[in-house]
Amino acid sequence: MTSLSSVSPYDNMSPVAQVAYRARAAAADLAPLPRSAKDDALLAMADALEVRTSEIVEANAEDIARAREAGTSETVIDRLTLTPERVRAIAADVRHVAALPDPVGEVVRGSTLPNGIDLRQVRVPLGVVGIIYEARPNVTVDAAALCLKSGNAVLLRGSSSAYSSNTALVRVLRDAVGGSGLPADAVQLVPGESRDSVRELMRARGMVDVLIPRGGASLIRTVVEESIVPVIETGTGNCHVYVDAETDIDMAVEILINSKAQRPSVCNAAETLLVHEDVAAAFLPRALDALADAGVTVHGDERVIEYADATKATIVPATTEDWETEYLSYDIAAAVVESLESAVAHIRLWSSGHTEAIVTTSQAAARRFTQLVDSTTVAVNASTRFTDGGQFGFGAEIGISTQKLHARGPMGLPELTSTKYIVTGDGHTR
Amino acid sequence: MTSLSSVSPYDNMSPVAQVAYRARAAAADLAPLPRSAKDDALLAMADALEVRTSEIVEANAEDIARAREAGTSETVIDRLTLTPERVRAIAADVRHVAALPDPVGEVVRGSTLPNGIDLRQVRVPLGVVGIIYEARPNVTVDAAALCLKSGNAVLLRGSSSAYSSNTALVRVLRDAVGGSGLPADAVQLVPGESRDSVRELMRARGMVDVLIPRGGASLIRTVVEESIVPVIETGTGNCHVYVDAETDIDMAVEILINSKAQRPSVCNAAETLLVHEDVAAAFLPRALDALADAGVTVHGDERVIEYADATKATIVPATTEDWETEYLSYDIAAAVVESLESAVAHIRLWSSGHTEAIVTTSQAAARRFTQLVDSTTVAVNASTRFTDGGQFGFGAEIGISTQKLHARGPMGLPELTSTKYIVTGDGHTR
Questions:
Q1: Do residues B291 and B206 share a domain?
Q2: According to the UniProt entry, where is the signal peptide (chains A, B) (predicted)?
């Protein structure tokens, strides 16, 4: 049987075009594979990560040494670090992906048309997925596992600070994939440490089916604005907690503190508190104390500041900039609003459209807020921190899309697929 | 109740930014509307088109006069022309859209999470949809109706050749929308007849949620490459008919002729014939005669030409260019291939990924072709001409997407929506 991987040569191609071309060929081979073949490769990847842990940890040590020399902060070095324990945890994640259902082949719609034609819309892989990401080398393995499970070839463009780690990890993964009979080119590192390789990826329309940038806001903005390859925008979160006129004050304080302070550095943490004026006097003094206890600085509007006097609050006057800032720190913007509609208008104007929560005892308010707010996730009487593929029960997450096309909110395996229609007749013509 | 449409002024905005800004406000008002409110507006639109037909036909006469003066071909003038009958047919289409189910509010996924949170993924409008299209003024009404039904505001950027017609149509539609209590700004014509307004639309990221170019290949390519607003690519069709080794010759000839010649000017017409070498001697002489009878010129490879002698075929030698050409005329490229896999490799290399058909009696071949071909639609023993929203039973079609993200194949109302997650707890925190 002729292999689809052997159609044409790599002459005159740049290094990035070569990996993309190889990935396309691998993707063609992956697409029709049954789940068992993909799961076998995933389990082989997990085993190989464990067996070759020392090789990975040694390569990682080179990155850490370079980072130390460059005066990198200990927080970033911690994110970069791979220990034998962390490698075991990464391998466990890969086994977990193997245990998830295969999205490919799922029949999304199907019917028999009036003329007797059978119509089916079936999930298929996207093809070649490019991931552009920053420091954490665990993303290398996560992304490779999720793409392989969904039948996609992946092009990994990690940061230069993790180059040695990523090179070792991809070597281990490719050996495992190839060893289990699948094309090793399904998992490839994009060569080159400079920004040029990112630019080349962004121009590779027709070779790369989608780019998913994961990381800082500036990286994401660059890719969104410059790429002619379709992009899925991820992870910018200016999330709001709105405390309605009719509310359970205890619940509102708990949800606020959890949304803001349980893990402030992530995209589903709250960045702005909006309080209905009718509940401000009852809620704000308690909320400001609780925020102070959690070590949070409040950037308040004039009406919030009015309630700060008798509290422990560290409070600074809010400027317009505060409404649009994703702090990712122990800071929160806060304003008093006249109505639920004012809260919605504020959110529509300033939110990044990630997650907004309402705390209310009113069914009508919950319903109206849910209808009017146009974000990936609207939480009613629950923390913003639940917007997460793991929490949603997807078993895995490749990122949180904050765009409206293709995928919105936490992206699991189905979001890494497209569909095709299969039309079956017996000689049907029009 | 405060209206969300009255948040800020239009100072210092360009004309295109102003319509986009107004559309955003209208979209916010449309999103929570129940089906009945939208259907009432659609029926009012249909009635108004009929009542004000003469106003529309008179405006259309201006466009036609200008086109005649400019020496436009009669085919294009015919596409541009609105008669009272055609306006009635357009109004009937709008009533048909009103009768379709509302995609907004459909629960796509839903479950109760282990912690008791209720999770629902619900269809919501995209927001503001920009349509960039060429001559036919019926698209103006179609697009407005489909967008309104799916809760979206629409920005219509038609061709300058239809400017008077589109202006009259949009005036009639806006009056009807406003008269039924919905925001008239849900339907707007993009001002300006020059390319500048298209360029401005393409830069309006954050104001416009998606651009859908409909029309010629050059328009679509420009929008795909230059837009930073997300784009849905539509309508390029280099479709293939593959006649397998094991085949019903009569059926293969019928499907070939229907795919190529029933309506050659549309994107789902076949442009290339691939024939398995084992069936070439039995199939090609009959196929070449049938193509000749249908007035089709064959651009054949050497092995096809071998079979032309005893036939009526008009045949010219194929060049590489023929494999990638979307003729949209009575022309077809033709090649003999060694195997099903060679046919698939040819399709992967040259197809635009629209529709490919196989004619075969072999269940194994049908299955393998269906698995390996990566196009929006794979037809087994059926004409390529079935790839169509109407034929698929969608009741309407805004275009045929040939990209993999968001929508693939004929796009109906659900493809004009995004989703959001609704998380409902009773004080849940992490």
A1: no
A2: none
ipTM over 0.85: yes
Helix (H) or strand (E) holding A75: helix A74-80
DSSP letter for A381, please: E
* Residue B368 amino acid letter: R
Band of pLDDT at residue B9, cut at 50, 70 and 90: low
| Residue A251: both structure tokens together | 């619940």
Same domain? For B135 and B56 the reply is yes
Please state, in angstroms and rounded to a whole number, the distance separating the CA atoms of residues B413 and B300: 41
Q: What is the CATH number of the domain that holds A281?
A: 3.40.309.10
Task: Kindly state whether residue B305 falls inside one of the protein's structural domains.
Answer: yes
In a domain, B378, yes or no: yes
- Taking a contact as any Cβ pair under 8 Å apart, which residues of chain A between 232 and 271 contact chain B? 232, 248, 251, 254-255, 258, 262
Chain B window 29-58: which residues touch A at a Cβ cutoff of 8 Å?
Answer: 31-32
> Does residue A129 fall inside a structural domain?
yes
A346, A314 in Cβ contact below 8 A?
no
What CATH number is given to the structural domain containing B98?
3.40.605.10
CB–CB of A113 and B383 under 8 A? Answer: no
Q: How far apart are CA A242 and CA A335, in angstroms?
A: 10
Has residue A2 been placed in a domain? no
Phi-psi region of A12 (alpha: psi -120 to 50; beta: other; left: phi over 0): left
Residues B213 and B269 in one domain: no
pLDDT digits (tens, 9 = 90+) for A312-365: 999 999 999 999 999 999 999 999 999 999 999 999 999 999 999 999 999 999
Q: Suggest the residue from A405, A419, A424 to mutate for an interface test with chain B (most B CBs closer than 10 A).
A: A405
- Count: domains in chain B: 2
Closest CB from B113, B341, B420 relative to A1: B341
Residue at token pair 């070792």: A168
Q: CB–CB of A409 and B419 under 8 A? A: yes
Domain hosting A134: range is 15-232+411-424
Q: Which two tokens stand for residue B417?
A: 């929506």
Tens of pLDDT, residues A193-251: 778 889 999 999 889 999 999 888 888 888 988 898 999 998 789 999 999 999 999 99
Contact A42, A98 (CB under 8 A): yes
Residue of A249, A404, A417, A424 to mutate when probing chain B, most B C-beta within 10 A? A404
| A185 lies in the same domain as A226 | yes
The reply to whether A219 and A256 lie within a common domain is no
Together in a domain, B243 and B387: yes
Q: DSSP letter for B375, please.
A: S
| Same-domain check for residues B317 and B202 | no
| Residue A233: closest C-alpha in chain B | B230
